[in-house]
Design a protein that fits this description.
By secondary structure, this protein is of the alpha/beta class. The chain is built from 14 helices and 15 strands. Strands 3, 4, 5, 6, 7, 8, 9, 10, 11, 12, 13, 14 and 15 form a 13-stranded mixed β-sheet that branches. Helix 5 (277-291) packs across helix 6 (306-319) and helix 11 (415-442) crosses helix 14 (544-551). The longest helix has 28 residues, at 415-442.
Length: 553
């Protein structure tokens, strides 16, 4: 894919985003399911933003806002609209403009959901559009000669939803704390980003991976323009949580992304293998059948209303309902095509494309409570239900051994918490450990490993440290209302320690700072892991017995 193959985009004319969000998550990063985000409406805080600096980009000048010394630029197009003739095609560059463009409001998010018309509200809800290739920047000092580290966020939502304008992703606090430049990005997801039509027409040869090519185009834009915003194009960290972690893993294996970022942080989104061409072709055939489009008329799909595409996507999910969790997650996702994505990121070995890139990786203690907790009855799980669920994970022969091990290691815990702990280890920990061990064996760059163990007081403490829990701490945004937080001093102090570690890793590839114990790079002898909790501590081979149990399954 030629990096220069990045045309035309009209100005975004849409409302600001200060609204509730629907955040797409997946069970074990598997089955896609919508849930209300714990990240609530972002209130006004500090002084009101005022008109800020004008910055020259390759496409034209943009004017941002400034609040308490931090400049924000929202909804900057890095690519043309992906509607019409650009649908399912590689991203192309935006059309240039001559007037100063006001970058005061977030851009559109990619269409997602059921295909029903998006609801609006008096609080200016975010809208959906295929004109969604846009990014947001927070910086302490645009138009300066300083070269600050750049932190480039890939949003969560599996491969199916989400956006880079969630309230918790406001980059003001992080930019101020670390003297860094923050970038969040919107790109194509679900069927718009990952429908493999190349088997039917060579014109759509890369359609199944255009969502990832959008991210590469965003990184290329950053490389070409971020110095005007005070950032260093030669010191870029890609990071993301959940689906953002999956995207970060995939970027690590993409030749087109090589040289555009220099560190990677993977939060609760370890991905060892991408989709296969066979699976991508199978889903594409189902999708065309749902639309009533024959393979020899596949070009007609560029004229189908976006709502019908989403409806067909959901219909395919119903037809494919017999798929297991991981097959379901792969319906519309990037696949190994031998070119855009030449190999799996961490299977059977660590990709050589990013061998010299340091990695920060980890997960939360009770990841699975986020997903399983949607069913209130799960917190009343008894021993019979626990055994039934464990059998599904381990097989009947190993189930009792598993239960006995976790009861020994976590005495007095209720069946529900035992299940959250062991299911998290079976999924997030083991995928993460595979990546860690392969990266260490590659011996080209360090790996730093964390466990986020701080327990939310929400739901009477029964969620523990669920999926997404670390995000407001990484972003130093615990002051923003969040259903998982109490808004107290303890949270603020942990946010300082956590966000500073990510900042230092972005700056140098090493997360150590004075607020934490010494954090060695991971090796297969000590297996050093930083545990983030009320008191942060370094632990050697954290969860050794659990790890060895699951590795032997």
């Amino acid at each position: 894919m030629n990096r220069n193959q990045i045309g035309k985009v009209p100005n975004f004319t849409r409302s600001n985003v200060q609204d509730r969000r629907i955040f797409l998550k997946t069970a074990g990063i598997g089955l896609a399911a919508y849930s209300l985000s714990p990240w609530l409406v972002m209130p006004a805080y500090g002084q009101e933003p005022v008109t800020g600096a004008v910055v020259e980009t390759n496409s034209g000048k943009v004017r941002g806002l400034v609040n308490d010394g931090i400049h924000s630029f929202k909804g900057i197009p890095y690519g043309a609209s992906t509607a019409g003739k650009n649908r399912f095609m590689p991203p192309v560059k935006p059309e240039t403009w001559t007037d100063v463009r006001e970058a005061f409001q977030f851009g559109h998010r990619c269409p997602q959901g059921s295909g029903a018309p998006a609801k609006t509200s008096t609080s200016d809800s975010e809208s959906f559009s295929e004109d969604c290739l846009c990014l947001n920047i927070w910086t302490p000092e645009p138009n300066s000669n300083r070269k600050r580290p750049v932190m480039f966020w890939c949003h969560g939502g599996a491969w199916s939803g989400g956006s880079g304008s969630e309230p918790v992703l406001n980059g003001e606090s992080l930019a101020r704390r670390g003297d860094v430049v923050i970038v969040t990005i919107n790109h194509r997801v679900n069927v718009f980003g990952f429908l493999q039509l190349g088997a039917f027409n060579d014109r759509f040869a890369v359609s199944g991976n255009v969502g990832m090519l959008d991210l590469v185009a965003g990184l290329q834009w950053v490389h070409d323009n971020i110095s005007q915003f005070g950032g260093d194009p030669d010191n870029v960290m890609v990071f993301g949580e959940s689906g953002g972690g999956l995207k970060t893993c995939t970027l690590l294996t993409m030749p087109d992304a090589k040289g555009l970022f220099h560190r990677a942080a993977i939060e609760s989104g370890a991905l060892t293998k991408n989709n296969t061409k066979e699976r991508a072709d199978e889903i594409a055939k189902m999708f065309l059948d749902e639309l009533g489009i024959s393979a020899n008329r596949v070009e007609e799909i560029q004229n189908v209303p976006q709502e019908k595409l989403l409806q067909a996507m959901n219909a395919v999910g119903q037809r494919d309902s017999g798929a297991d969790m991981h097959q379901a997650a792969s319906r519309f996702s990037p696949f190994v095509d031998g070119e855009v994505i030449p190999v799996h990121p961490f299977y059977p070995v660590a990709t050589h494309v990013s061998a010299t890139i340091p990695i920060l990786i980890g997960w939360n203690t009770h990841e699975q409570s986020f997903f399983q907790g949607r069913n209130p009855g799960v917190f009343d799980m008894d021993e019979v239900e626990l055994e039934k669920r464990v059998v599904e994970l381990t097989g009947e022969a190993k189930a009792q051994q598993c239960i006995d091990l976790y009861k020994k290691l976590y005495p007095g815990r209720k069946p529900s918490e035992l299940f959250f702990l062991l299911a998290t280890d079976q999924d997030a920990r083991m995928k993460g450990t595979q990546i860690i061990e392969l990266k260490v064996k590659q011996d080209k760059a360090p790996v730093y490993v964390y466990l986020f163990a701080w327990r939310t007081p929400a739901n009477r403490g029964r969620l523990g440290s669920p999926h997404t829990m670390e995000v407001p701490f990484v972003w130093d945004n615990t002051h923003i209302p969040n259903r998982l937080l109490a808004g107290n001093q303890e949270e603020k102090e942990l946010a300082v320690k956590t966000s500073e570690a990510w900042i230092q890793f972005a700056r140098s590839g090493n997360p150590n700072h004075n607020g934490l114990p010494n954090w060695p790079a991971y090796d297969l002898k000590d297996r050093s892991t930083m545990v983030f909790d009320k008191e942060c501590k370094m632990v050697k081979d954290q969860g050794k017995e659990e790890r060895e149990f699951w590795q032997n399954i």
